[in-house]
Give the backbone structure.
Amino acid sequence: MRQIFPGEAGLADADLAALYGYPDLTAPGSTHWLRANMVASLDGAATLLGRSGGLSSEWDQQVFAMLRALTDVILVGAGTVRAEHYGPVRPESEGLRWAWLRKGRTPSPPIAVVTRGLDLDLDSPLVTEAPEHARTIIITTESAPADRRAAAARTADVVVAGDASVDVSAAVAGLTMRGYRHILAEGGPHLLSEIANAGHLDELCLTVSPLLAGPGAGRITQGPPLPDAMGVRPFTLAHLLADEGYLFCRYVRR
C-alpha cells in the first residue's frame, strides 16, 4: 500500500490509520460524522455475482477492518445483511491487526440494521450472538409487525425511526443520542442513496477495483432519481492510495 495523493510514500499501519482518522467533533454544532465505505468496479458495478466481496482484495479487506475498528457503530441495510451474510464484528477473526485502535473503548462496535418491515432472520448470529457490549441495533418503523418488534427486542436494541419507511435523519439522530457519533455506513446502495439525499453523507471511502464486471450490476447508489440536480453532492479528494491496481479514494463533503 502506498500513498499517491497528496505526495507519495509507503504506509505503515499507524500512518494508514491516521489518514482515515475521524475529524474533531468538539466544535460547537458538531454532533456526528457519517462515513460510507463502498467498492466499485472500473465500469461502476457495486457487486460481482451479487456480492461486493467479488470486487475486493486483501488490502481492501484490511481497510474494511480498520474502518470498523475506528468507528463507534456500523450502519447497514437489511438487504446487504442478507446478501453478505452479516454477523457480529469479531475482532479475533477480522480485525486483530487493528485491535490497538479500540484501546479505551469496547472491543468491537455494534451493527445497526435498517429494516422497514423487520424482514430479518431474528435467529441469525447477527441478532442472537452479538456480545453484550455491542448488541445489534435494529432500526425499523411503526408499521413493522408488533410481534416481530417484540421478538427482536429480546436479543437486540430496537429503534423506531419513521412510520411506513425508515426516516434516515431520525435513525442518525437516534444513534447520535446513544453516543455513537462516529458512524460507518457499509451499504447497500439504497441506504447510501437515502443517506446522501438526506444530506448526512460527510465522507465516502471508495475502493476502485481493477475489474470489469460487465452489464447488469447496480451502482453504489440506487433508488428513484431526484429532479434536476438535487441529488448532486460535491466532494473533495482527501487522499488517494494504491495497491496492485486497486485505488483507495477518500472523499469528504465540501
Observations:
- The first helix runs from residue 13 to 19.
- The chain is about 25% helix and 25% strand.
- Residues 190 and 222 are 5 Å apart (CA to CA).
